[in-house]
Design a protein that fits this description.
The chain is of the alpha+beta class. The chain is built from 13 helices and twelve strands. Helix 11 runs antiparallel to helix 12.
Length: about 425
């Protein structure tokens, strides 16, 4: 049996965990630059706040319903996620952190346990211990556990835990699950299936396996098997290395001069290099892109990118920043108001299998030792203590975060003070 634990309205719940005033009140969290709604509490959903709606379009509702509005605080959310996952790891020897707010638990060998009671104890303990409410779905496969979790979240009668352990429960759950809500079936496949009269998960599970394989390849067949209680998606305790790494931001204010873009691009390239070292990989090429605000029809538009092949695969920050800036200078044009930039690291290979260049004059062993020192010093800080001078400090490109909450768990100055 597998369990999927999902944090309810995670970003909104993180904001409430340290500010109980918002318990029972509508709360929304905004995207980068306070643009659109990316998280809603149940109360916000109930009054009709739609996911993805621009913040300026709901100003009336915010005032009318006293909605709590928060800028994205990913430092806080990441730390709270780590707390939840750490607690869950004590309940199963095999867990898979699927996303920032979801985790699979392997209950193989738990046959003597009453999984319903065990699950309720987990939900109760994690919710009380972290302040983040969670729901759990338990089933013979990971896909069915996803289905069960949706019912646990929607219906209070389950007490936070829905278990699919009989054929009757499986059929009932699949019958009430729309085909577009099934894990592994995207919008394109959902539309195609609906044309064939398949509107829910049960109808899909009853389709001939050969037809599913022909129409949806082996990926669709795997989902079909999982819905029919045949496990074929294994647990991944260690996340596979990323094949591409991208760091990009929309700026809080438009930038016209190249100096501001250099600060942003060098910072993005530095972040990418750090991620490469963390997964013990090196990059063979990179791409830098910049573009203006396509919503400003009154301004001239410019969209451009540049790809550079690196002479030797590397994860060295100064080297990656050097080539990223070279790409930027190649595509920068005066007279435009730039709104976004980004760096994409491509052609990633393990750092243990690097093709050297006979003409390479860089002392790579020395650079590796330097990066090890930098990573150790910066580890644990919310902001890098050591950075390249080119990254600057003016931060004209910094995100707009007018409703940012404190980093209660990671900054000493933001820790809640209690006066008695």
């Amino acid at each position: 049996m597998f369990a999927l634990v999902d944090c309810n309205n995670f970003y909104a719940s993180c904001e409430r965990a340290f500010n109980p005033y918002w318990n029972g009140r509508p709360v929304v969290v905004l995207s980068n630059n306070d643009g659109c709604v990316i998280a809603r509490s149940n109360e916000a959903k109930a009054i009709g706040i739609k996911m993805g709606i621009p913040a300026y379009q709901i100003k009336t509702e915010i005032e009318q319903y006293n909605i709590g509005v928060f800028s994205s605080n990913y430092t806080l959310y990441g730390d709270m996620s780590n707390r939840v996952m750490t607690m869950l790891s004590s309940y199963s020897p095999n867990i898979e952190v699927y996303s920032i707010d979801e985790c699979f638990l392997d209950f193989s060998g738990f046959e003597r346990y009453n999984l319903k009671e065990y699950g309720e104890d987990i939900v109760r303990t994690v919710t009380k211990g972290t302040g983040i409410p969670v729901s759990m779905g338990i089933a013979p496969t990971k896909t069915l556990a996803k289905v069960a979790n949706k019912f646990a979240k929607k219906h209070k009668g389950y007490k936070g835990v829905c278990i699919i352990d009989t054929e009757e429960k499986r059929v009932k759950a699949l019958k009430h699950t729309e085909i577009g809500d099934v894990w592994g079936i995207g919008g394109r496949h959902a539309k195609r299936l609906e044309k064939y009269g398949v509107h829910n998960a049960l109808e899909f599970a009853q389709m001939p396996k050969a037809w599913v394989r022909q129409q949806m390849t082996v990926v669709g067949e795997r989902t079909w098997k999982e819905l029919n209680c045949e496990p074929c998606i294994n647990m991944e305790q260690i996340a596979p290395p990323k094949k591409q790494i991208c760091t990009s931001r929309a700026f809080g204010q438009t930038i016209t001069e190249i100096e501001g873009l250099e600060e942003a691009v060098s910072s993005f390239a530095s972040i990418c290099a750090g991620k490469l070292r963390k997964q013990k990989s090196c990059a063979q090429s990179l791409m830098v892109f910049i573009h203006t605000n396509n919503f400003r029809e009154d301004l001239p538009q410019y969209f451009q990118n540049c790809v550079l092949k690196l002479p030797v695969p590397t994860n060295n920050t100064p080297e990656i920043v050097h080539y990223a800036l070279a790409a930027l200078r190649n595509i920068y044009r005066k007279g435009y108001f730039f709104k976004k930039a980004g760096v994409i690291i491509m052609d990633i290979v393990p750092d243990s299998a690097i093709q050297q260049n006979i003409f390479d004059a860089v002392d790579r062993e020395k650079h590796k030792k330097l990066m090890d020192v930098v990573d150790r010093l910066n580890n644990g800080f919310t902001r890098n203590n050591l950075s390249l001078a080119i990254q600057g400090g003016r931060r004209k490109w910094k995100l707009k975060q007018e409703q940012l909450s404190p980093c209660y768990t990671t900054k000493i100055n933001d820790i809640i003070k209690i006066r008695i």
